[in-house]
C-alpha cells in the first residue's frame, strides 16, 4: 500500500486543481512543501508531480516550479475537417486572428512536394496567429493553389478562408489526410507564439482535397499543447 502513496497524492492534487484550489497559471507548493504537507519523501512527491505533468495538469517551468495548466481545452476532432473559426464558434469562444503574412509566389521545394507541384505554379501563403484567452497559441501556415483560388484578402483570412471558399467561390471541400507529430518549437514558433515554459509543440499537417480529388491546400498548424485535446471516435 505504501508504494502507491504517490498515486494517492496525485489524485488529491488532481481534485485540488479541478475544484479551483490551484487555478490555472498558479503554481503548486514546492517539492519540499508538499513533502512536509503529505509527510513523505521528495521522491514520492516527484513521482506524483511527474504523473500530473504527463496527464496535462501541470507544466514544470524552470525558475517557477509546477505551473497549473488550464483544463478548459478545445477538443480538436482528428477525423473531422473543421475550420478554426467553426470550432471556436461551437465552443462559444471569441478568438483573435492576426494575419502575419499573405503572399502569392512560386512554391518552395517543401510545398512543391506537399502539393505535388512544380516551380511554375503559383501558391498563396497565409500565415495566421490565433489568440485565445489573451495568449498566442496557434500558428497556422496555409498554402493554397492560386489556380483554384484566384483571390485572397487580409479580411478574408482574418475571418474564415473556408467560409469564403465554400460560400463565395463554390468550392466543395471534401476530405483531408492528416499527420500529427510532437516537435521541438522552432525559432519562428518562439517569436510568434507565447511559449515560455513549453518545450514541445503539436504539429498537424493537413493535405486537403476537393470532391474531384484535387489536392488544393496544404496546412501546417502548430499548437501550444496546453490548450488543445485531440479526439476521435472509433468503432469496432
Automatic annotation (TrEMBL):
Positions of the HTH gntR-type domain: 3-71
MF GO annotations: DNA binding; DNA-binding transcription factor activity
Pfam families: GntR, UTRA
Species in which this protein is naturally found: Pontibacillus marinus BH030004 = DSM 16465
Example GO biological process: negative regulation of DNA-templated transcription
Name by which UniProt lists this protein: Trehalose operon repressor
SMART domains assigned: HTH_GNTR (SM00345), UTRA (SM00866)
Keywords annotated in UniProt: DNA-binding, Repressor, Transcription, Transcription regulation
